[in-house]
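Lecture notes, continued. The same structure-token format from the folding unit now serves as the input rather than the output. Read the line below as a description of shape only.
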């Protein structure tokens, strides 16, 4: 199957570093299609050139939609007060519903631009059966070393989760911890992300339309292997750059960083 990887992304000093790191996964794995959705009013040259230089023009789709100002984080807001990527992921879902072949078995994965992904994870996703949602552990998230589905010893089906943060959520897992058979997106056209849900409920919001806990397909060695980490990049300190800017100078004059 083709794995459609949906990545919301927005301009900030380390955006190109994040996307460059991700692009190498796509260069290694020919069955991936990157749906990259910019949180901006226009499609940027930075993203277009990056896709081109990685040789991904044919295996990627560049979209853009700006998060409405009312929902956008302000400079000093803690990052958790508003959901991120809602608008962008919903646009990608509608693109997939329009452009993917409804008769074929493909996969959709929501891929943040700052996480760390092993190439092995994508081989696991390829095992997702038509009409199912695959799940696996995610490292370094929810205040734990690892958040993971808990399996019944006899049936190997998911019977719970080890999450410590908001464990009462219907699906207490991170966005990086599941992927969806496209068949389900065609079967449940209302499945999407929403601004109307509490913090931490985006994953549950889409999954509640698509599956139940016991229908989840455990992957990654029956959820014993960690193949993705919820890493977060430190905010770049640019005090010296700001001082230069005040003198009308830039260290990156004529360069794309
Ligand atoms: C966690 C989850 O890993 C996210 O998938 C989820 O969207 C988020 O919580 C949430 O609850 O909204 P976290 O690391 O805190 O993620 O979020 P970010 O990595 O800052 O943002 C998630 C994605 O949205 C990234 O790909 C980021 O580039 C994008 N984003 C973020 C935008 O497109 N616009 C923004 O203003 C902020
Ligand atoms: Mn992140």
């Amino acid at each position: 199957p083709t794995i459609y990887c949906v990545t919301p992304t927005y301009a900030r000093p380390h955006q190109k570093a994040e996307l460059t790191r991700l692009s190498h996964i796509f260069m290694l794995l020919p069955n991936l299609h990157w749906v990259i959705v910019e949180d901006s009013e226009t499609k940027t040259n930075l993203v277009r050139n990056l896709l081109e230089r990685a040789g991904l023009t044919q295996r990627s789709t560049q979209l853009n939609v700006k998060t409405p100002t009312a929902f956008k984080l302000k400079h000093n807001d803690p990052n958790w007060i508003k959901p991120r990527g809602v608008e962008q992921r919903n646009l990608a879902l509608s693109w997939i519903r329009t452009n993917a072949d409804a008769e074929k078995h493909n996969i959709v994965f929501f891929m943040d631009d700052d996480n760390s992904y092993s190439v092995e994870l994508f081989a696991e996703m390829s095992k997702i059966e038509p009409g199912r949602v695959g799940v696996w552990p995610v490292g370094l998230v929810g205040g734990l070393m690892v958040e993971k589905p808990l399996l019944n010893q006899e049936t190997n089906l998911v019977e719970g989760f080890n999450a410590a943060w908001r464990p009462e959520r219907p699906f207490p897992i991170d966005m990086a911890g599941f992927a969806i058979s496209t068949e389900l997106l065609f079967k449940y056209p209302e499945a999407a992300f929403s601004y109307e849900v509490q913090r931490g409920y985006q994953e549950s919001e889409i999954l509640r339309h698509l599956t139940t806990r016991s229908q989840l397909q455990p992957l990654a060695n029956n959820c014993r292997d960690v193949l993705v980490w919820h890493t977060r990049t430190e905010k770049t300190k640019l005090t010296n750059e700001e001082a230069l800017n005040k003198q009308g100078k830039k260290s990156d004059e004529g360069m794309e960083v």
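Point for the exam: The chain has a mean pLDDT of 96.
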